[in-house]
Amino acid sequence: QAVVDFERLSEHAAAFQGHDVGFCCLGTTRAKAGADGFIRVDRDYVAQAAELARAGGCKHFVLQSSQGANPHSRFLYLRVKGEVENLVQAVGFDRCTILRPAVLLCKRQESRPMEWVAQQFLRVVARVFPVAYSVPVETVARAMVASVLQPGKGKVEVLENGAIHELGKA
């Protein structure tokens, strides 16, 4: 494990060398970082980390994005997620896997009351529609690892929420 300063990421290039696979789950919220901070973390830091990983020899990059990611979206969150997907693909990895989970079900240390209410509701909905609107973070993690252990389906593979659930069972 290496601790890096994302504001000076290029100074930490050595931390990105010698790895065959890169996993990226980096992200923040607009509420926590503001619009500019959200863009810097969710797009710029991720793109720069991908570039450093590729320069360091990474062959397969696995990116956690978001359901609905679209570089042309009117919504900042979905637009930034779509933009970073394109930037990561453009880096030129031998293989790139992008996971687009729906609402992540997890326990957080920080207080997010509205998210907590939404998660409680989605846990009930998941009993009827188990793969439509949410996914436990443990399932996403298992799917990320499984995506590396199985043969790819092309240079770029995008896994939507249903496929994440399926692969997360593997």
Features:
4-stranded parallel sheet; Protein HTATIP2; catalytic activity; 46% helix; 170 residues; 5 helices; Rossmann fold; globular; NAD(P)-bd_dom; two-stranded parallel ribbon; 6 strands; alpha/beta; NAD(P)-bd_dom_sf; single chain
- Overall radius of gyration: 16 Å
CATH structural class: Alpha Beta
Proportion in helices: 40-55%
Mean pLDDT: 91
InterPro entries: NAD(P)-bd_dom, NAD(P)-bd_dom_sf
Protein name: Protein HTATIP2
Organism: Chunga burmeisteri
Pfam families: NAD_binding_10 (PF13460)
Write the layout of secondary structure elements.
Elements (H helix, E strand, L loop, with lengths): L20 E4 L5 H26 L4 E5 L11 H15 L4 E6 L2 E3 L7 H16 L5 E3 H13 L6 E5 H8 L2
Helix pairs in contact: 1-2, 4-5
Could you characterize what this model shows?
This protein is an alpha/beta fold and 170 residues long. It has a single domain (16-166), classed as Rossmann fold, CATH 3.40.50.720. The protein has five helices and six strands. Strands 1-2-3-6 form a four-stranded parallel beta sheet, sandwiched between helices. A two-stranded parallel ribbon has the order 4-5. Helix 1 (30-55) packs parallel to helix 2 (76-90) and helix 4 (137-149) packs across helix 5. The chain is globular. InterPro entries: NAD(P)-bd_dom, NAD(P)-bd_dom_sf. Residues 4-150 form the NAD(P)-binding domain. This is Protein HTATIP2. GO terms for molecular function: catalytic activity. One of its GO terms (biological process) is import into nucleus.
